[in-house]
Amino acid sequence: MGDTFATGKVSVAGVATFGVGEAPGYSTIELAAQATRMAMADAGVSLPQVDGLFICLPDDLFSALSLAQYLGIHPRFTDNNRNGGSSFLSHLVTACAMLDAGYLDCAVIAYGSNQRSSGGKLATPAGADRWDAPYRPRYPVSLYALAAARHMHRYGTTREQLAEVAVAARQWANTNPEAFAQGPLTVEDILATRMISTPISVGDCCLVTDGAAALVLRRTEDARQGQDAPVPILGAAAATWYNSVTQAEDLTVTSARESGARALAMAGLTPADIDVVQLYDAFTINTILFLEDLGFCKKGEGGDFVSGGRIAPGGSLPVNTNGGGLSCCHPGMYGMFTMAEAIRQMRGIAANQIEGAETALAHANGGTLSAQATVVFGSPATV
After folding, report:
1. Helix ranges restricted to H, the chain
2. CB within 8 Å of 13: residues ≥ 6 apart
3. Is there a domain that residue 217 lies in?
4. Residue 190 in contact with residue 204, Cβ under 8 Å?
5. Which candidate among 16, 69, 319, 345 keeps its CA 20 to 30 Å from the CA of 138?
6. How far out from the chain centre does Cα 70 lie?
7. 326, 165 in Cβ contact below 8 A?
8. Number of domains the chain contains
9. What is the pLDDT of residues 70-98, one digit of tens each?
10. What is the Cα Rg of the chain in Å?
């Protein structure tokens, strides 16, 4: 199987976030549109130039059509594929292939959510496996708790190690002005929080915030018209293994093993070549699973890997340098923000900029460890 698109042929020309944390008074589409306009200004493009529109909103099944109408544009192609948080990285795969093929010239990927200010809670999706229902799981936390419990049983992973993930995220957030949750946080603080679905407690769970983000993608030669140097996309891939995690053959392995391997192979890189990592950390177990499945450590060693400050500021592998979903923001679906932070790192403008970073990996999770997508970005110097 060949590459989906030519490595480095497509770049991010513009990126923006808006309303991160709390944005009262904004609808989801207003948040997405605001981020889109800001990203377009960053890219130096106008509305009539946008011929591809990729979005999924939490409250609109026809969100791509709605955003096109809201912006007053007539795109050649729209997509509101919704796999959960990995949707936007999957959108990027499609957009890059279409840009490389010449079908599109300028694609926007956008998202907006007012989950916090609207008081909304994450509802069980209509397609959830009805065979899980008799056990009355708390959606989605109980399904992630299954994976965490199995990992602990099989590999000896501890709640203290899970807590290290949240503490590292908070340390990054404390020096990021955009981060919603700041202040001191210790392993003991996490362990003392209320248990929700054993072994996951409140301290192991992501935030509930508002927020929007948008990217503008163009062929690399065209992307140079923007305010900043284009950020090339070196590799990208997605993989889906099931819907409910209860259908997993192994609760400790996700399809990140597949999406990550294909994205890195496309980029011609290995995990050792990646300078900074942005992961979808809806729960602390996610970070451990994804670090293993993406190849940054061996299966079963994730608990030890995240301990001792290895993924925190000053550690050997910077992970979720904006604070992640655990401490920066989590507006219903977080995938867009993994990419936004990776792009900022490659541009050299991140709040917690990693000096000399030339490669960044963004990874997102959809459903309940169901669909995974991985993107490898390079600095402008890599192409």
Report:
1. 28-43, 63-71, 87-101, 141-155, 159-173, 187-191, 220-223, 256-267, 284-293, 302-305, 324-327, 335-347
2. 42, 43, 44, 45, 216, 217, 218, 222, 223, 225, 226, 230
3. yes
4. yes
5. 319
6. 25
7. yes
8. 1
9. 999 999 999 999 899 999 999 999 999 99
10. 19
Instruction: Check: CB of residue 336 under 8 Å from CB of residue 5.
Output: no
Give the model's pLDDT for residue 228: 83
Whether the predicted pLDDT of 133 surpasses 90: no
How many other CB atoms are found less than 10 A from the CB of residue 314? 8
Considering the domain boundaries, does residue 193 fall inside one? no
Provide the pLDDT for residue 1: 46
Closest CA to 36 of 86, 88, 76, 81: 88
210-219 and 10-21 beta bridge pairing: antiparallel
CATH number at residue 313: 3.40.47.10
What residue type is 23 in one-letter code? A
Tell me if 238 sits within 8 A of 94, measured CB to CB: no
161 part of a folded domain: no
CA distance 196 to 320: 24
Q: In this structure, is residue 128 part of a structural domain? A: no
Q: Are strands 276-279 and 359-366 parallel, antiparallel or unpaired?
A: parallel
